[in-house]
Amino acid sequence: MKIRTSKLRFSLALAGTLAATLTVTGMPLSADDRDILRESTTKPYLFVILDTSGSMNWAPRCTAADVADGDCTYLCPTGDCAVPRDGDDPASKFRQSKEALYEVLKEVDDIDLGFATYNSDDLGVTNKHWLYKVITGEPQITLESGAGYPLHGTDEVFGPAIACDRGDGDDNEMGCFATSDRAADTTDIWEMTKVRRLPKFGVNPSAATTPVSFYIRNANQVYYVTYSGATQAYDSEILVHVRVDRCTGTPTNDPSNGCNAASERTLQGQLDIRYSLVGDFIMWDFNVRRTPVVGSSGNGYFNATFSTSGNTCTGL
After folding, report:
1. pLDDT tens digits for 28-70?
2. Structural domain count, the chain
3. In which domain, by residue range, is 32 found?
4. Which of 47, 177, 241, 309 lies 20 to 30 angstroms, CA to CA, from 221?
5. Does residue 240 lie in a domain region?
6. In a domain, 305, yes or no
7. Measured in whole angstroms, how far is the alpha carbon of residue 105 from the centre of its chain?
């Protein structure tokens, strides 16, 4: 589904449709054979089909001019852009459609409603993730350039593990290795977003947390970054132990030894840092792509989804 309107525009369109529907003088929306189910009614019928296709996890088109006009807030000039919490994100088409539908229908009385989705039998969710934000003012580890890590206000994903390496190719391997320009560069938004979205801690940190590591590059120096923590629940705040080791191989921006072993790096700094909860979500990451393509599929980082569905039911 290619929604090209903001939630506001969607709400107005839906409200207009319902208003037109409610002007019908007591007649059903379709043929009179509906009366086989009901002898008579003064209420009109409205049947809503919900689009549950994968692209509903992405943002609708929102240009800089749209943002300036207040029509939308999440910049997505091409449409179909990945959003931080996928279909649970306020900027996603699915969340906007649900909110708009709720806002309109809560004002509507005396109408018979029906709901259905696309053919999606065997729906299921295998697990969920949590999005946390680095709390502004928390201590930072100082890199060789003087830059602080992690950046205040940046989002990071926690929850069930996903392998960093997604297959052959630079982008699939970005952040997973120290060599051949595969360390995520701190000046590259997509590369840093990928490692920030690499899930940390695991399924149930109340029982155990699983350390997660990746590589970053700052000012021509490669670092090995590890996230760990004591057992704790996914509450409104969590405490994360962040450790940064400087790779000691040469050249510093592409260490020939790979920086794979502890002997090939030295401690730069480690801190316990507080993160605040943004929200939980069902991950739907469709592909590994830096930018969305108009009329095609959106950008992504891991090609990993945690929901399932089938379409084997034909209705026959």
Report:
1. 444 454 554 555 556 788 888 888 888 899 999 999 999 999 9
2. 2
3. 7-125
4. 241
5. yes
6. no
7. 27
Asked whether 134 and 273 are in contact (CB, 8 A), the reply is: yes
Per DSSP, what are the bridge partners of residue 214? Answer: 225
Examine the domain organization and report whether 148 and 196 are in the same domain: yes
Contact 118, 53 (CB under 8 A): yes
The closest alpha carbon to 156, from 99, 225, 247, belongs to 225
* Tens-place pLDDT, residues 227-285: 999 999 999 999 999 999 999 999 999 999 999 999 999 999 999 999 999 999 999 99
142 plus 268 within the same structural domain: yes
Q: Are 58 and 83 in contact (CB under 8 A)?
A: yes
Q: Quote the radius of gyration of the chain (alpha carbons, Å).
A: 24
- Burial (0-12, 13-18, 19+ Cβ within 10 Å), 132: buried
Is residue 287 domain-resident?
no
Distance CA 60, CA 76 (A): 7
Decide if 241 contacts 229 (C-beta within 8 A).
yes
CA distance 293 to 91: 18
Q: Are 126 and 307 in contact (CB under 8 A)?
A: yes
